[in-house]
Amino acid sequence: MRLGQEFAGYARQVANAAERAGRARDAMLELALGGTAVGTGINRRADFPRVAIKYIGEDTGLGFFEALDHFEAQGAKDACVEASGQLKTIAVSLSKIANDIRLMASGPRTGIAEITLPSIQPGSSIMPGKVNPVICESVTMVAAQVVGYDAAITLGGLGSYLELNVMMPVITYDLLESI
Hints:
The protein has helices at about 5-25, 50-60, 70-75, 80-105, 135-155, 170-179, and strands at about 30, 65, 160, 165. Helix 5 packs antiparallel against helix 6 (about 170-179). The longest helix has 27 residues, at about 80-105. It has a two-stranded parallel sheet. About 60% of the residues lie in helices and about 5% in strands. The protein is mainly alpha-helical and about 180 residues long. Strand 1, helix 2 and strand 2 form a beta-alpha-beta unit.
C-alpha cells in the first residue's frame, strides 16, 4: 500500500463527511412552526407558518419548509437524532484519520516515522526530536465530545411523550455544541 493510496482514502472520508454534513443540515430544514402546542394549528392565522418560515429562510439563506405533519415533527425529534448521528459519523471518521496520522508520525528514532508532522509543539526532555501530535490529539478529543453529545441527543429523542418532547433543551444545546 502506498502513502498516496492511504491519503486518497482520507480524502474520500472527508468528501463523505461533507455530504453527511449536508444531510444533517437538510434533516433540520422541516419546521413545525405554527402548529400550536400539539400540532393542531387551532387559534392561529392560517398563513402564519408560511409567512414566518419565509422570513426565517430569508434571514438564514436556508430552504426551510413547514412540517409535513406537525404531530410527528413536534412529538418526535427524529430529525435531531438523525442530524446528530451524521455529526457523530463525521467525528468518528476524522478521529480515525487523526489516529492514523499520529501513528504514522511516531518516531523519530523508534516507531513508524513514515511521515513528519510540523513542530507545533516540539520536544521532550527525555525524547530528543519528538514532536507532539497536538492537532491529532485535539481532533480525537473533539470527536470524543461529539460522540458524547450524540449519546445525550439520542437519549433526548427518547424523551417524547405523546405530542411533546420534554428534552428539547438538551437536544438543542448538544446539537449546537456538536457543530
